Amino acid sequence: MKRLLSIELQKLWLNRAGRILTISYFGILSLIAITFNLEFSVLGFPINLAEQGIFNFPFIWHFISYVAVYLKLFLAIVIVSLMTNEYTYGTLKQNLIDGLSKKEFMLSKISTIVFLTACSTIFIYIMALVLGLRFSSFTEISIIFSDQKYIVAYFINLLAFFSFCLFAGILVKRSAFALGFIAIWFLAERILYGFMRWKIFDKEIADKVIAYFPLESISNLLLNPFDRFKTVKAIKTMQGDFSETDYTLHWYSIVIVAIWTAIFIYSSYRILKKRDL
Prior knowledge:
Blueprint: H1 2-14, H2 16-31, E1 39-42, E2 45-48, H3 59-69, H4 72-88, H5 91-97, H6 102-135, H7 141-144, H8 149-172, H9 175-200, H10 203-210, H11 214-219, H12 230-238, H13 251-274
Antiparallel strand pairs: 1-2
Helix pairs in contact: 1-6, 2-4, 3-6, 3-8, 4-8, 6-8, 6-13, 8-9, 8-13, 9-10
């Protein structure tokens, strides 16, 4: 496995676009560290992010994970490119000629996905810990290490989404079309949800049904934490909205995403195994 990962990392580093995107990804993640200086207005309410407690333990685990997960598109492009370039430049066929089996080739891609996911997770964990220790009003050990379920959710989210990107890359074989396929899948889920919501079921049932779809189930692992801000709560209360969001990371949500991850990986391998290269 170490040898296979080494081969993939060499391909990644030698790919100029992939190298730039990966470095940019971690660079932009680092910029989150300066968000405490931002101040803006929402409906006339002045908001200072630091004063909203975004760097307080344990909320920082949720906030950092939620913001960082949107930047996964950088690495998603890298994953898709790594796979589609194998077809474009014929390196897949050459690897097989050189003695690499299709199973080993697939394992090399999976190991790369796990490696990038782990690196990203460790990076945001350290960043959140440093920011929290620097700015949090609560530094008791029991509070610092509570609610780290959001870091787990972040890891699972990235792993599942990158598995989907790998599947798209193998299925479509061209970077632009593979990324388009991902975008179309996302829109299809949104359109289907709207159809169910307005034509078939009520909102409650539609929400439950769409939660079993791949991209929706992945996104549900990390819900929007901004409703927990004091100012946002005040605005919602003034508008007569007293609803509370359930931020619990349910076991069945993890199971759904795990099943889809397994389906994407297995389907990718089956396509690769059966396809005439």
